[in-house]
Amino acid sequence: MSKRSQPKWQPPGRSTGPILKLFNSLTRQKEEFIPQNGRHVLWYSCGPTVYDASHMGHARSYISFDILRRVLSDYFGYDVLYVMNITDIDDKIIKRARQNHLYENYVQEGHSLKKNLDDAKSVMEFLGGTVKATADADKKCMLEKLLVRMTGAVEELEVAVKSQDEEKIKKAQEVLLVEAKDPLSEWLDFNCGASVTDNSIFAKLPQHWENQFHEDMDALNVQRPCVLTRVSEYIPEIVTYIERIIENGLAYESNGSVYFDVNGFDSREGHYYAKLVPEAYGDAKSLQEGEGDLCISEDRLNEKRSPNDFALWKRSKAGEPWWDSPWGHGRPGWHIECSVMASVICGDSLDIHTGGVDLKFPHHDNELAQAEAYFDNDNWVRYFLHAGHLTISGCKMSKSLKNFVTIKDALTRHTARQLRIAFLLHSWKDTLDYSNNTMEMAVQYEKLFNEFFLTVKDVTRSSSDRTQISSYQKWEKDELELNKRFIAAKNFVHASLCDNVDTRGALDAVRDLIGNCNIYIRDKTSSTQESNCLLLRDIAAYVTWLLRVFGAISTEECIGFPIAESKGATNTEELVMPYLTIMADFRDNIRGHARQLKATDILRECDRLRDDILPNIGVRLEDREGGPSAVKLMDREFLMREKEAKKTAEAEKAAEKERKKAEQAAIVAQRDAQRKIKPSEMFLSETDKYSQFDVKGVPTHDAEGKELSKGQIKKLQKLQQNQEKKYSEYLQSAVVNGVGDL
């Protein structure tokens, strides 16, 4: 017999599954994501200009990018270096800092009543001129409303002066200063802005708002950047960067400022200006807005060789902070800061650059041009990702129009998790409408997830952490089918995340999977069979992990959302659940005995424990017919809201029941009252309809004395006959019931 040899082995065919694609603004389509250095990703994100409170527009960008970052690093396994800047030198900051300083001084100086009124009238005249010169309809409407409020405040002060009531005058003065704050600050800045010379004034404002921004990001569970850069810390690097662009022949100095030569750059081989929005090339309005409010002057425009050129370095005027440079005292332009700081940290080519869609032109297009002029390349950014706009109940959000919701305000209405789920339910690149409907959908998704986690914990709480023979059950048809759906859901989630990080598609797949689990648990319970604990825990753990990847869960929970009261390293649920289970079992036994004995007082106490006592410590107890009670450890505040909602619903139900009861009683009373009327008297009171009656009380003439037709009289006689039957029944019942006085 010949020696047998091992047969040849054939590897399985390689499956070509979905690959990660991202919507790249540079091509306006989804492109396969290929980092330049293996798994290492260089990512720069435009940070905030810190001159006011962070609002939901900021949340739109930074939560969206946080989700993208977490998916790339925690789901796809990329090593991400995430760099973000803080713009702490900017025309908006300079102007706001000056205005705040001048307004605070004006209030502290405590001017006379006459000066307050005279200045207020000058401010109103100044504001009126601004209204006339404003072309934007929304802004014009906002300024007009401001003018109306200020006019009203001035008139109230004048009325108070005439009354000679010192208390009224003082209060009216205070109201005027509050209502006039914005236009008064503008007026003071216009007249006295050049007198502000202390550089610390311009540093104090951005430091305050940067600190507030970081607090807001922490509250939203947005991961901190790996590197944070501030413009004020990179002035030497910015100056050196500009010098290099000048040496490369693509920038020029003019009257102490330095401008980028757009036409020169665009005409060079290998370079292209306005890659992101080529159709905006030459858009004078957008270019001017990009230069900043403090650079709108004829002198500044005349310094440029072309209207398309933009400032790399701005000569500082009186009332503006400044730094030394080869071109004199000045400060950086807006666009140059990002090019410099991103280049210093990440080098000559970024994998990903992110920012709001409103930054495409001119800011990001100018960034690209500057950096590519510096490095003499054409690929400074490989993938440009832009977060979509955010609207407020369908309307444009704008700080300047006072139509914005701060992050702190939003967090008083909804939790950070609910806000994040709302963002997860929308594409990161499309417009998101922040409205009651949007948030209600997010709340419902959160409730769906939470109830699923609580149900799985309850169903599986009897299973031991130690491996035993009973730990494993045979998979029957139901388990095989559920596992099949589990695998399909994971595949769908993966395909969705590969498709431009489609988190909505991923959450919809999870929602359907939870629905399948709920059906499985229901069917097992109704057939008195045990659910497969291991399979359910695996599914719940996967859903928990995915939500943790998305940033909707911030702790290392095995299953579900963390309990709000949990603090420290101890897992509160694991600690208290054994005791709660003993208590629930004891209550079940007591209720069983009380039912047999018909001891209603004991049953009432058991209900009070369930409905009033346990919710106050964050425990929901659910009675189940024929089985042990479900014990669910939850956030106490959620249970309190749930309890109040239940009370409100019960009160409304009781009120509705009482209303229907009263209606029914009124109908019965009306019917009884109708039965008591003698047939001969039933029409006599209707003098608005009839004027004459026959001997039986049937009308013969209408109210105007006109004789009724035979047909009309016949109908009335029929009605009287029906009443005779009702009256006869009433008399009989009265006799039976012993009613003496008929």
Automatic annotation (TrEMBL):
Keyword line: Aminoacyl-tRNA synthetase, ATP-binding, Coiled coil, Ligase, Metal-binding, Nucleotide-binding, Protein biosynthesis, Zinc
Xref: Gene3D superfamilies: HUPs (3.40.50.620)
Enzyme class (EC, first level): ligase
CDD domains recorded: CysRS_core
Coiled coil: 639-672
CC per GO annotation: cytoplasm
Pfam families: tRNA-synt_1e
Top-level taxon of the source organism: Eukaryota
Molecular-function annotations in GO: ATP binding; cysteine-tRNA ligase activity; metal ion binding
Cofactor(s), by name: Zn(2+)
InterPro entries for this protein: Cys-tRNA-ligase, Cys-tRNA/MSH_ligase, Rossmann-like_a/b/a_fold, tRNA-synt_1_cat_dom, tRNAsynth_Ia_anticodon-bd
Biological process, per Gene Ontology: cysteinyl-tRNA aminoacylation
Enzyme nomenclature, EC number: 6.1.1.16
Residues annotated as domain tRNA synthetases class I catalytic: 35-443
HAMAP family in alphabetical order: Cys_tRNA_synth
Protein name: Cysteine--tRNA ligase, cytoplasmic
Organism of origin: Zootermopsis nevadensis (Dampwood termite)
